[in-house]
């Protein structure tokens, strides 16, 4: 099943919350990864490979992507969309 994702800005201009229509991080704990980490989670791995992504935080049906200050959201979000498609389509 293809995942549907809704992007929502946060008070931090370098962070975007992405909420999915299904659970993407299993379990009761949160997951946090930064650039340079090598996570086992397939989506986390794809997101951290995107140029301009600094770190991510995930819990159940959402992930917050934090970009580097000089990265542009238009470029980052199009690649985030591709990452979701690659992992969940």
Automatic annotation (TrEMBL):
Pfam families hit by this protein: Nfu_N (PF08712)
InterPro entries hit by this protein: Nfu/NifU_N (IPR014824), Nfu/NifU_N_sf (IPR036498)
Gene3D superfamilies in the cross-refs: Scaffold protein Nfu/NifU, N-terminal domain
Residue ranges of domain Scaffold protein Nfu/NifU N-terminal in the record: 5-86
Annotated protein name in UniProt: Scaffolding protein
Species this chain originates from: Alteribacter lacisalsi
